[in-house]
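Pipeline run #58 for the internal structure catalog. This entry was flagged by the ingest filter as a single-chain record with no existing model, so it goes straight to prediction. Upstream metadata was stripped on purpose; only the residue string is passed forward. Reviewer on rotation: M.T. Logging verbosity set to normal.
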Amino acid sequence: MPNPSKESLSNAEGLPQPLSEQNPAPISHQTTNQASNQMIEELQTLPEADKKQANESPASSQSNADSPSITMYDRVLNALRSIYDPEIPVDIYELGLIYEINLRRLVPQAEQYAVFVRMTLTSPNCPSAEEIPVEVKQKISAISGVAEVELELTFDPPYTTDMMSEAAKLQLGFM
């Protein structure tokens, strides 16, 4: 399998996954434009209530992670942004350790979701290899409306500092 470039990684940075009725899919190696077009297509197929929830802005309700006006996807992101690698002062989302987040509504018209997260660690020998995935599952499971959490730890593609957000690079002195 060819090693994907920075532009083709399906990491959560800039490529949020909309609410979906489908099962979690493998990481797709696609450009930002392809991912945006796919998101628009998926959003167009959602029931009207899901479209409203998927389009809501989280900015007005950042203070309360379980506020009904904040989407489930944003609640999951907030949980991930509260988790730090103990050796690095940047959260795991900004570090680029999250490759995929997929939400699936378990029962139509109910606010119960299954959450799938595909992530990596900075290295296979990471000293926090056992703690970080457990913390991810615990924090996502604690979100009101999450009934199931599945976490897949992968090292393909291998982590590089290119996966970090610009904010993380600035904070760590990479820019």
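catalog note: The first strand starts at residue 98 and ends at 105.
catalog note: DSSP finds six helices and three strands in the chain.
status: ready for reviewer M.T.
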